[in-house]
Specification:
about 200 residues, mainly alpha, Arp2/3 complex 21 kDa subunit ARPC3, two-stranded antiparallel ribbon, 2 strands, about 70% helix, membrane
């Protein structure tokens, strides 16, 4: 029998650290665009969520959650609600990957209208889950928070940027740079493993 090839641990760690760095480079410059001090701001970095999920899976999800937490620490925005934010951001990225393959059952692509509509639906579903989790976490820490502004900002951050920025970036990644999504890479690895000589 053959064994599925696994990515070396060192490469996984290197990829994780690289993704965290990308998150930091995109998130910190926008930390001045505050909506509710200490709790939420305008975050173009959320465009990376679907990219990290669809192209890097669990590694991308953890990298985004850790990057978000480090960003909060460096911008003096660390609160108890960041625990909810860490979990919600991790789940959002995982959900995008999982929901795509539950709904479309194929490699990621935005080449036709059905794929793009499915992508939008997935972003909306994931954003609702994330918004509920983070809003509850913030409200539990500071009940006097402007809940309408908080919910609106979180939901818009996690729908608008993944759609208007995330989608074009992924199209360029695939069409111009020929980068493979995680599902396709895994299929290629499985195919290569099946074609390799059987171990005795």
């Amino acid at each position: 029998m053959t064994q599925t090839q696994k990515t070396p641990l060192g490469r996984k760690i290197g990829r994780f650290l690289f993704l965290v760095l990308i998150h930091m480079l995109l998130s910190l410059p926008f930390k001045v665009m505050i909506m509710i001090p200490g709790f939420t701001d305008i975050r173009p970095v959320t465009c990376l969520q679907p990219i990290f999920g669809l192209f890097f899976g669990q590694t991308g999800a953890l990298a985004f959650a850790v990057g978000n937490l480090i960003s909060d620490v460096l911008s003096d925005s660390l609160q108890w609600s960041c625990i909810a934010g860490f979990i919600a951001n991790y789940l959002y990225v995982v959900m995008v990957y999982k929901l795509w393959h539950m709904i479309r059952k194929k490699a990621f692509s935005l080449r036709d209208s059905h794929d793009f509509l499915a992508y939008i639906a997935i972003i909306l579903i994931s954003a609702v889950v994330l918004t509920v989790m983070i809003s509850f976490g913030v409200y539990a820490v500071q009940p006097e928070v402007d809940l309408v502004t908080l919910i609106g900002t979180i939901f818009c951050n996690n729908t608008i940027f993944p759609i208007i920025l995330g989608a074009p970036i992924m199209i360029i990644m695939q069409e111009e740079f020929h980068l493979l999504d995680l599902w396709t890479r895994r299929k290629k690895e499985e195919s290569a493993d099946e074609d390799s000589p059987a171990e005795k």
